[in-house]
Specification:
Layout: H1 3-40, H2 53-77
Transmembrane segments: 12-33, 53-72
Keywords: Membrane, Transmembrane, Transmembrane helix
């Protein structure tokens, strides 16, 4: 295993999942903060409440495509 392959594997298998977990925690903190604001100021019936689901799905899709792209580029090199 060359040094470049080692760096790529460390990036894919440790940093990207850690980044995703951090992003999900950030979304959870924002959602918690928003819920606290909603408890203080109830929304009118015409407004929508905050949902973290689109952010979580986007983060997971980002990781999926990133890992897929790296795996695809590795297969082409071999």
């Amino acid at each position: 295993m060359t040094q470049k392959q080692l760096i790529e594997s460390v990036l894919v298998y440790s940093l990207i999942p850690l980044f995703t977990i951090g992003l999900l925690f950030l979304v959870a903190i924002i959602a918690h903060y928003q819920q606290g604001l909603l408890a203080q100021n109830p929304l009118k019936k015409t407004e929508r409440s905050f949902s973290p689901l689109p952010y979580i799905v986007t983060a997971l899709l980002f990781v999926l495509f990133t890992v897929g792209a790296v795996a695809s580029s590795r297969r082409k090199k071999e």
